[in-house]
Every structure is written in C-alpha cells, then in structure tokens.
Fold these 3 entries.
Entry 1:
Amino acid sequence: MNLHPITAHMPEERFWGIITATLAAAAAAGDDPDAQDKAQNASLAALLSELDWQDVLAFENRFNALHRASYTSHLWCAAYLMCGGCSDDGFDYFRYWLISRGEAVYKAAVSNPESLAAIADPENDDYEREDIAYIARDIFAEETGGAEIYGYLSPDERGYPDITFDWEEDDPATMQHLCPRLYAMFWE
C-alpha cells in the first residue's frame, strides 16, 4: 500500500451527513447518555469502515478543520460555564462534543456560543467527548496495517490560531457579559 499525505478535506455536506447518521443511531439507543455515546461511536466506526483510507483521512482532515475553527475565546467561555471549569484538554473534548452534536448545533455555537443555552441542561456538566476523536484514527490504522494517521494529515490543520481571551475565570462578570444565558443557567 502506497500511503501519502492527503490534504483534501471531505466535503462538509458529506461529513455532516455521516455525523447526522450517527446521531440517528444514538437516538435509537434510548435515553441513557452513555448508551447514546456508545451507539454513536459504533455507528461512526461502521460508516468509516466502509470508506477507503483516503476518505477516512479526508474525514479526519474535515474533523480537524472544524475543531480548529471552533477554537475561540467566546466558545471557551461557554465551555467553561457548561463544564464547571475547562482546561486546555477539556476545551478540546468540549469541541469534539460540539462536532458530535451535528451541523446545526455546531454552526450556531461557533457563530454565537449563547445558542448552546437552548440545548444545555443545568443538571448536566458532561459536555466532553474525547472518545469520538479517536474513531477515524483507529479505522485508518486498521485499513493501513497500523499506520499512524498523524503523519498523513493535512499540515494546514495542525496547531491552533492565537486567541485573545475576552473573559477571565477569576472575574465572573466577564463571563456573564459574554454568555449571560449560560451564566444564569450554570454559574448562579
């Protein structure tokens, strides 16, 4: 097998179609969030297993591009409120969760993080999905005889842009200013 880096990104319509299919599988798993996550993961693994390694890589490139595009101070503030605190890794996992929620939720939140108040549950602080980030990587390794996906990803999607924080965790008023609805739901 002649492996080489793939810079192509899966078209957004196709990417979000796959995520939508996994959400249908999650919904069919009932009301238990853990069962829903497992069903979504299994569905994603099954769908990606049907693709060739180049398409799996293009899926991962799109996933990484969306993850990178959601690296904003305002969204980090929302994550901090919803999760009861949010480290660097926690913000990564929050953005994986955000992608796993589908196109409409993702795009609304990137545009206006306050939109998450419509789907957030103040009784829940589990808005992280580290597990979903490894599925394409595992499928790629299976299809390529154990190759690590990192060496074949688009170099454009590595690292994060610089951001300037417009809120401070030690100054709740700054979080309230940016995300008043989420602040009222999770902080007060």
Note: The mean pLDDT is 93.
Entry 2:
Amino acid sequence: MRNSPRVMAMARPGALPVPADRKISALTMPSVLDRWSEDAAGLRALAQGDATITMFDVIGEDFWSGGGITAKSVASQLRAIGDRPVEVQVNSPGGDMFEGIAIYNVLREHAQPVTIKVMGMAASAASIVAMAGDRVEIGAASFLMIHNCWVMAIGNRHDMAETSEWLAPFDQAMAEVYAARSGRSAAECAKWMDAESYMSGSVAIERGFADALLPADQVKVDDDAKAREQSANKLRSMELTLVSAGMSRSQARARINEIKGTPGAAPDDGTPGAAGDQTADIQADLTSLLAAVTGR
C-alpha cells in the first residue's frame, strides 16, 4: 500500500486545495531563517507615522514566538488607517506562502498608494508581500530573496513526483507576480527562483523588483530583538528537524516543550545570553532524541 507524502502544514484544515489526507504548506527554508537572524533581525524604524505598517516578523502565525504577520492583522490595520496612502516597512524571512499571497492581495486592494520599504530582508513569502507596493524602496545593504515553493515530504518516488506536480502551479503563480512587478518575463523570474536568488538593493533595482534605495540612516540594529529572534529560529529549525524525522508537527512541539520544561512557553524574552544557554541545552537533548528516532 503506497503512503501519501508526509508534508508539514501551517494552514488551517481544509484551507488548501488538496485531498483531506494530504498536509502541505509552502514554508521558508531553515537556511533563510538563519540568514535573516544573523544579518538583519531586529531592525526598527526610527520614526513611524500613523499610516505606517511594520512587518518585522515571520509571515503567518508563529507558534514559537507568539507573533507573526497575517492577512487578518494587515486588513485590520488598513481599516484603521482609512483612505490614505500607506507605508509598509518590511524585515522578514518569509513564512507561509499562502498567507503571503493573501497579504499581497489585501495591500493591492487598498485604494490609496502603497509604498513598501525593505528595511532588512524580504525573503520568500515576504518577497511576495513586497511586490504589492506601488513604489518599492530597499536599503543598499538590504536583500530581497526569491525561491521556489518549499515543502518537507516523505514517501517513495511516486509520492515525490505527485508532490512536484502539485507544487508546479504555485511556482508559476509566484513567477507571474514577480514578472508583473519587475517587467521581466515569467520565465526569467522562474530561473531566478530556481537559483534561490538573493538580490541586494542595487540588484533588486536593476532587475525591476524595487524602484529606489532607502537612506541609510532610517534603520538601526536592535541587538536584544536580534538575540530573541535567533533563539526562536533555532526552535523552529528543531521543529522542522523532528518533523523530517517522522514526527507530526504537534508531536514535535510537545517534545520540545517537554525538554524545555515549560509546556506552551514561547522563547525566553530575558537576556540574550540566557536564551542562548537555554537553546543550547535543548539542542543537546534533541541530538540524543533524534538519534533515538532515526536510529543514527
């Protein structure tokens, strides 16, 4: 009997156009989360107007930090702003592609001009959000990253072929969004997606993904926020590793919380050193756990 691919999901049950026994979600790769945490996490605007929306978090609800940017929250902020031009400041590693597409459409439906400012990184699903801007500005040292729809799956070659076929229209949809904003062909954008391309400010402008550079003095680094996000990213990576080893998402979270000794707790909001020490202890325990689960 052939088993269906085991693919991790963030979306609500029934929210995806797939059979009920299939769980698939398009997520940011762990390597992107690591790079965001190391190079760009914790960026904050020095001055924000009352018509500014900040997206300094993952796209979609985030179990580990209790945060996340959702289409529902963005729509609520737009209603509060009203019929005025909006500025959206972005520093995000991405997250759930489907939530990113929803946020993109919510912003595109706003009746007044939308200016997107990439303050640190707009990767994966966050790059889709960035394409919603009537004007897109990016820091000289900021990055926009695009790649193909990314999932985790377990199964035989037939399962993998079926999953690949299922993913194809979503990659095409993303390529068309990038093409519409940049003026490049969908085929050219698809090649950049295949290469998992990181575009600096000048490259993003050259390729049409952005219109202009940001003044360098508009952002500063918040080291405490950066340390907290690094801790949260490590927990997310641990969760992905356990799922890839055969656990369900709920089992992985329960096991990590059991090791932490504080079920249901989010990452430590204390000092950066304390968070790092706690995560190191969890990592050591998980190494032993994975050896038991995988037999290696």
Note: The two ends are 27 Å apart (CA to CA).
Entry 3:
Amino acid sequence: MNWISDWALPKIQTLFGAKRDVPENLWTKCPACEQMIFHRDLERGLHVCPHCGHHLRIGAIKRLDYTLDAGWQRIELPRAPADPLRFRDQRRYADRLRDAQTKIGMDDAVAVAHGAIEGRRAVVAAFEFAFMAGSMGAGVGEALVTAARLAVLQDAPLIVFTASGGARMQEGAVSLMQMPRTVIATRMVKEAGLPFFVVLCDPTTGGVTASFAMLGDVQIAEPGALIGFAGARVIEQTVRETLPEGFQRAEYLLEHGILDMVVPRGEMKATLARLISLLREPSLAPAEGDLAPALAEVAILPPTEPAQPGA
C-alpha cells in the first residue's frame, strides 16, 4: 500500500487538489442595488454600477487618471506639520496619520497633478476620501494653495474634485484656518483670469462645503452625491421638520439652483474639456458672453412632467 500513499496520492493531489491563486477582489457589491459587479466590468464602466448607475467612490489617483490625458504628472506637495497640537484621543494623531499614509500611499488627503484634458492644459486636485475621510487639515490647505499657484504659473484652469467629511478635528483651529486659506487660493486663480471648476463627489460635507467647494465658476456634481454642511439628522433636530426626500443629494441641489450641472462620470472629462474651451477660447464662446445656453446643453436636468392638456 506504500506506493499508493507515497506516489499515487501525491500525483492525484497535484492534478486535482492544487490550490490556485485567485484574487479576492474579483467581485464588488454595489452599495445601492446590492448586485455583484465583476472587476473588469467595474473598471470598464469607471466604477459606475452597470445595473443601477450608482457612482461608487474612487480614489484620488484613479480620479486623476480618469480625468487627465495620458502622460499627466503628479506634483510633490510641501509637507505640513505632522501633529501641531499633539492631539490624542483613543490613539495619538501622529499614529493615525502615519497609518493612513502607509495604507493609502499619500502624504495627506489631496493629490495634485498637471496635464491636459482632451488637449487642453489644466491643473487638477483630487481628494482621497479613504485618507481620514478626506478631512481638511493643514496639509490639504497647503495642497490647494500649491495647486492654485501652479495654475497661475501655467496659465491653466484649476479643477478640484472634492470628497470630504469636513475639517480635521485632530488639528482644531489649525484645520478651521484652512477654510479662509483655501478661499484665498481660489481668489488667486480668479484674479489671474483663470477658470475655477469644482466637481462635488460623494460625500462633500462640513468645512470643505463651507469654504472653497462652493466658490467655483461652474459648480458640477456627480449623480447621487451627498453634498451639505451639517448632517440631515442634525438639521431635522434643529428645525424640527421632516426633510424632503433626496435632501442634500446632487439632483435636489441642481433643482434648487445650488449646482450648475450634474454630470455622469463617463461624461465628466468631455464636459470639463468643453467648459475650458468656452471660458478660455473666445472664438468658441457665445457671442454675447452668456454661457447659460451652453451650460444648459451639457447639464443633466431632472425629468419634467409632460404638460397636461389645457394647462
């Protein structure tokens, strides 16, 4: 019986029982419709659910790759003080920051790059929500100021993709001071006569919404993005009223005039390229300088009810 255990059984195990190295992330569950999406289909669709159209959250580097033409370059950002207040709760802030840097591979919650969008020069800053919920501290403020200076230097529009939980509580007043600082950064771009576009992604809340994120020359959002300052529960408890359905979602804000357009991820690059052409190339802009008709063409407005007879 030795030949069975010593020779035949190992051969059979080699042929039929060998374990294959199969990646664990081949399938992703859509958080909206809970359908399973194959990883290749997810990448092909720019991380938009093919079943329900839900826009899944993506990282800053992937955002830059989807937006800019091939060959874009990421810039090195100045380092901010790691722990200005020596903050500690259940863990030291310095340890939390170090863990996030190791896990994400970024120094802070914003990546800045320069390149072209369909041949049109641009500077793009993208928030990384996975980095401490995209919270805004001194590092984020420094990144946005650097992006603004680069845009002015290159005579290029500045585009910021926001995805943030607000100010970073571990930096206290230092974090709050980034609100006026980022507003000043936007003024640098506008005073140079350059367009400033903001693309609000899911979620954009707190101090980011209350500062530079609402100061774009054109305000854009991805479908279904959560956008607001305080949470819906806090607002309901304050006003003691039930909020309408879809409150703080991109489509609701578009309907009420807070946004200029809601653009699906697959059309974002072409839309930004067209807006840059309209604002940077006078020959392509409307003769009277009114961009409203042009913006209306690319805006995705909520469906309107058909007119009733006799109305």
Note: The first helix runs from residue 2 to 16.
